[in-house]
Amino acid sequence: MRLQLALDVSDIDAAVEFYSKLFDTEPAKRKPGYANFAIENPPLKLVLFENAANAGGINHLGVETETSEQVEAAEARLDDSGLETTGVADTVCCYAGKTETWVVGPDRERWEWYVKTSDEADFGTDSIASLISVPGVDGGGDAAGACCS
User: Which partner from 5, 46, 64, 128 sits 20 to 30 angstroms from 39, CA to CA?
Assistant: First the structure.
């Protein structure tokens, strides 16, 4: 597993150039307004969204797992601890098929537990709409950036 950090940036090209130098690696996936890095050391999935309105802000956080069973186990543990989750679902978002669950922290920070199951040609349209009143999900911002890996 590795942690995921999804950031909003004002200029995707400048951000890709900076983070490529910072982590000495090129993006694993690059699309218009979007890039993600699969960084080995430190183990990190860094996702960038071009979103000038929230530039420098955290889009969401996550944990990338290796299997769907790990996502299901995390969702069960979170649910058993009393945290409200979205439940486990198969989705397509940010050019990837995924099995995922979401939870929102006490300051409305969004956390995604997921495994990537496929590469997709299209960005996708799935979102975490069941977590209402979260910026980017209920009309309060960029819903596309709420689900991506």
Answer: 128
Residue 44: which CATH number? 3.10.180.10
Structure tokens at 135: 């910026």
pTM over 0.90: no
Strands 44-50 and 2-9: what pairing?
parallel
How would residue 148 be classed by pLDDT, with cut points 50, 70 and 90? Answer: low
**Overall domain count for the chain:** 1
Per-residue tokens: 96: 């990837």
Q: How far apart are CA 18 and CA 11, in angstroms?
A: 11
Measured CA to CA, the distance from residue 82 to residue 115 in angstroms comes to: 23
Structure tokens at 67: 């299997």
Q: What does each C-alpha distance from 130 to 60, 87, 113, 127 come to in angstroms?
A: 16, 10, 15, 8
Contact 9, 46 (CB under 8 A): no
